[in-house]
Amino acid sequence: MDNIENNNIFHHEFEDYILSEHYLKKCKAIRDKADRIYHKKINAQDKYLKRKIVLFQKWMFISNKRRGLLLKQYSNLIYISKCVLR
């Protein structure tokens, strides 16, 4: 019985690791996309305050995309748990 329990714990830890790696890759892709979009906009601003506004827009873009990614993962987990409980 302990062997099965240990295997389940190992399996869950491995799944968590895969999910975290997938999340980190998605976050890196989001940051790269934001860099591509906002790089020219940031460099085009000659005034400090305008540059701060564009940096804030970039930060908002990244946080909105991350929030969407987390909500998608959460909804997938809820769907999977409902399927398992049936």
What is the number of domains?
1
End-to-end Cα distance:
25 Å
Largest sheet: none
Poorly predicted tracts of residues: none
In total, the number of strands is 0
Could you estimate the helical fraction of the residues in percent? over 70%
Order of helices and strands: HH
Supply database-style keywords.
86 residues, mainly alpha, 2 helices, 94% helix, elongated
Account of the 3D structure:
By secondary structure, this protein is mainly alpha-helical. The protein has one domain. 94% of the residues lie in helices and 0% in strands. It has two helices and no strands. α1 packs antiparallel against α2. It is elongated and about 60 Å long. The model has no long low-confidence stretch (mean pLDDT 76).
Map the helices and strands:
Blueprint lengths: L1 H43 L3 H38 L1
Helix pairs in contact: 1-2
Q: In a few lines, what is going on in this structure?
A:
The chain contains 2 helices and no strands.
